[in-house]
Amino acid sequence: MPSIRDGSLRWVVYPNDHPPPHTHVIGPGWEIRIELTQPPSLLSVAGTPKAAEMAKALIGTSQRLAQLRSLWSTLHD
Fold first, then answer.
1. 43 vs 35: CA distance, rounded Å
2. Burial class (CB in 10 A: 0-12, 13-18, 19+), 32
3. Bond into 21 cis (ω within 30)
4. What pLDDT score does 42 carry?
């Protein structure tokens, strides 16, 4: 499963996932699904991430948006 790591956060695109194009950002004890739109939008939150962790996940997704979209397209198109 393709992923990108930055410190304690990991961005994952699952090959057997469903639309809309999104990434799973996984942190210690939580997981956020973020749609790969501009700007990225929050789809769901599991667990209890801190506000700073959510911000880092959203900003990190924005910074990696082209890479994550390309990865989604490679796996799903």
1. 6
2. buried
3. no
4. 97
